[in-house]
Amino acid sequence: MKKKLLTLILCAFMLTLSFSLFGCSTSLNKEVSFEGLTLKVPSNWVEEDSSLDTSSYSDINIGTVNFLETSNASTGNWMSVSWSNYNDGKTPDELIKEEEQSAKEINGKNWHQNKLDEYDLESAHVVLYESSYEMDSRDGTNTFNTQYAFIDSIGMSYEIKVYGDAIDIKDIMDTASITLA
To answer: Which secondary structure element, helix H or strand E, spans residue 111, and what is its range?
Structure first.
């Protein structure tokens, strides 16, 4: 009996330890594709297409799709995938500076950014960033965390933003592939 109790306690301890070390992260198990970019997103997040109707402009291809966590909407976890064949020439460094300016315009403070990685993915160049800022509310000070992937491919640019901490941009990019049209 003591041996069974000791085994049960040991199993419970190991399970608790594994959750604390590895967390209960959101599973990336739904494959989606957007104009040559294929990646995986959480299947239990709701997909919302926010693309502009560019059908009257045959040479413009712009779009955005959002994925929203609905199991716990109060967490603020969501992600967006945007693409464009119009290149305005802005570098990832300039784009992250625009994000900082946007945060300041809504009274964000204590902006922090970190370049996570830079590498080539097939025919594309990828730059990963993370940022955070604080904003005061009547409930106190809230911290907003965002991760970014800026992807520049031949003829198409992509931008992935992950808001909150349910998924990691590096995990998403580990599932990504680029296919040229």
So the answer is: strand 109-121
